[in-house]
Specification:
Number of strands: 5
Strand order of the largest sheet: 2-3-1-4-5
Shape: globular
Distance between the termini: 16 Å
CATH superfamily of the largest domain: P-loop containing nucleotide triphosphate hydrolases
Structural class: alpha/beta
Number of helices: 10
Largest sheet: 5 strands, parallel
Length: 202
């Protein structure tokens, strides 16, 4: 089985490309969604965050105190981000590995792992190939502003905090251009032909 990492900058449309792969019968693990679930449910993460931030990081009913965690993360210290990531990322990595094995047991030839920070987190080391979803910066800014109801300044600040798109593209094995001009279906079919020798797995 082939494990395909799917990444791209803010507003690139990587989640949309992932949805098109799912329509073709390819399971895709959403690291952002799963990290949020695991942060609440995984005992190791709960212990780690509690040791780092105190009992107040979780409410008595078990919910995550998002405002407390956010204030710790966004105080301008990269060290704080690294500490939280060192608690969460290993659990996400292990969860993906278990999930991928279960997908292989079900007979899937290809699975995806969607992550905006695939390279930064080291998740690229547990996949076989990497797909970069690429879009022009101006289009990415517009999409993110509309999607998140954010200002251009806010979006560009988030872009600056991520790895440069050209660096991601250089380190990826495949690129899909999502510029609202190039046909996505054609590019995805070519990708599947390269990876598994057929356009559709269904």
């Amino acid at each position: 089985m082939i494990r395909l990492g799917i990444t791209g900058g803010i507003g690139s449309g990587k989640s949309y490309v992932s949805s098109l792969l799912k329509e073709r019968g390819i399971p895709v693990y959403d690291t952002d969604r799963q990290a949020k679930l695991l942060t609440v449910s995984h005992p190791s993460i709960r212990r780690g965050l509690t040791a780092l931030l105190g009992d107040g990081v979780y409410f008595p009913d078990g919910r995550l105190n998002k405002s407390l965690l956010a204030s710790f993360l966004f105080d301008g210290s990269d060290e704080h981000v690294c500490k939280v990531n060192s608690i969460i990322h290993p659990c996400v990595r292990d969860d993906f590995q278990r999930w991928a094995v279960s997908m292989e047991d079900e007979g899937h030839l290809l699975v995806g792992m969607e992550s905006a920070i695939l390279f930064e987190s080291g998740f690229d080391k547990i996949v076989d190939k990497v797909l970069m979803v690429y879009a022009p910066e101006s289009l990415r800014v517009r999409r993110a502003m509309e999607r998140d109801n954010s200002t251009e300044e806010q979006v560009r600040a988030r872009m600056t905090a991520q790895m440069d798109d050209e660096e991601k593209r250089r380190r990826s094995d495949f690129t899909i251009v999502n510029d609202e001009v190039s046909a996505l279906d054609v590019q995805i079919d070519r990708l599947l032909l390269s990876l598994v020798g057929r356009k559709c797995l269904q």
